[in-house]
């Protein structure tokens, strides 16, 4: 009987801990996922994104491991670094010092690829 009481207490503590962790991740300080539309280029040592209509470039971190794969399936190896039009869900963060993208002010962290095509819309050149 005493052993089952200990299990009940442990289960309750575990549930309280899980609820507390969930509450912390829902706070407003977490990065906000947005949809980004623009030109993506991929070449050895360079993964960049330029939003449509802007001259700003961001370094790209492909956290979903799909962007580079889809790019490689769309653009032949001989044409690497050719820009493609993408729509992705992700967030823009400050580039970390000492990282590959340190030369850029911001890094686009891609969470989901919505669209990737070599057909670039007229308003996004």
Summed up, what is this model?
Helix content is 26%, strand content 35%. With 125 residues, the protein is α+β, with helices and mostly antiparallel strands.
- How many helix segments? 2
Low-confidence stretches: 21-26
Number of strands: 5
- In percent terms, what proportion of residues is strand? 35-45%
- CATH topology label of the largest domain: OB fold (Dihydrolipoamide Acetyltransferase, E2P)
**How many domains comprise the coordinates?**
2
Major β-sheet strand ordering: 1-2-3-5-4
Order of helices and strands: HEEEHEE
Mean pLDDT: 82
The CATH architecture of the largest domain would be Beta Barrel
Description:
The chain has 125 residues and is α+β, with helices and mostly antiparallel strands. It has 2 domains: 1-30; 34-124, OB fold (Dihydrolipoamide Acetyltransferase, E2P). The protein contains 2 helices and 5 strands, in the order αβββαββ. The protein has a 5-stranded mixed β-barrel with strand order 1-2-3-5-4. The protein is elongated and about 70 Å long. Mean pLDDT is 82; it is low at 21-26.
Outline the fold blueprint.
Elements: H1 2-25, E1 34-43, E2 46-51, E3 58-62, H2 67-74, E4 84-94, E5 106-117
Parallel strand pairs: 3-5
Antiparallel strand pairs: 1-2, 1-4, 2-3, 4-5
């Amino acid at each position: 009987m005493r052993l089952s009481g200990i299990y009940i207490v442990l289960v309750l503590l575990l549930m309280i801990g899980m609820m507390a962790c969930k509450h912390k991740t829902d706070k407003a300080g977490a990065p906000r996922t947005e949809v980004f539309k623009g030109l993506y280029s991929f070449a050895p040592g360079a993964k960049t994104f330029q939003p449509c209509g802007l001259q700003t470039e961001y370094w790209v971190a492909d956290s979903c491991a799909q962007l580079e794969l889809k790019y490689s399936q769309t653009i032949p190896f001989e044409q690497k670094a050719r820009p493609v039009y993408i729509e992705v869900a992700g967030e823009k963060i400050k580039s970390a010092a000492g990282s590959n993208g340190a030369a850029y002010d911001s890094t686009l962290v891609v969470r989901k690829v919505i669209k990737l095509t070599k057909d670039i819309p007229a308003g996004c050149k």
